[in-house]
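User: I'll paste a sequence; please echo it back and then give the predicted structure.

Assistant: Echoing your sequence first, then the prediction.
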Amino acid sequence: MADPKTTYTLDNGVAILTMNSPANLNAIDVAMADELLKHLDRCDNDPEVKVVVIRGSGKAFSAGGDIHYLYNNINSGVTSDEKLVEYVGELALVIKKMKKLVITSVSGAAAGAGANLALSGDFCIATERSKFIQAFVGIALVPDTGGPYLLARSIGVHRALEMCITARPVPAAEAHALGLVYEVCAPEELEERTMALARRLADGPLLAYSKVKEQVYGAAFRDYEDYLKNVEETTMKVCAGSQDYFEGVRAFVEKRKPQFRGC
């Protein structure tokens, strides 16, 4: 049996979910996404859990998809991983629909699916060294984990499009100014600041918090599930079967400039 890719601890009502695959910068694969989904279900149904924290171990929050894994799949004839796209979409949806508040604690880079997982939290705390990267176009893919939906509703259509098209790293300070990040702190203060917020929320009126979250979901996210199923999954499927995608992944691993052809 493969080793778990996440850990779960409960500290005075605060459930801490840690992506624990530092060797590949906590890249999210099917196994990790499945573990996170199970942890979140447990959290939402356990009366002992008051607040949830999601974090990454090591130098990064999450580098997104494992490009070497995708490279090996392509070379073995597996051109897409539809199950992974489905799982990360479900992960983004569950965080928004669950009753408990979720804090994402971001150290280092949050790229691709990792960036959008970080932005899915109800509160996102990042360090001065953190950056958020919509890295998908580098391998000729579209964003997943709800990215364009979350960004368009948070910062507007044009800024969302710019981030997804350019794939530029967005520093934590800019993300904070845009309202994507709740707080920015020094790297050595991240755990302390995260737990301070978690404990403050855990001591609050939890029923009211859950109903406020339900209201916000009803006001801003009612069509989120439809978007994930009928827009995100379908556009990703088209791109994941393209020659540009194969070229993008191979070029990344082979450390060369990709030669895209638009097909």
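The two ends are 39 Å apart (CA to CA). DSSP finds eleven helices and nine strands in the chain.
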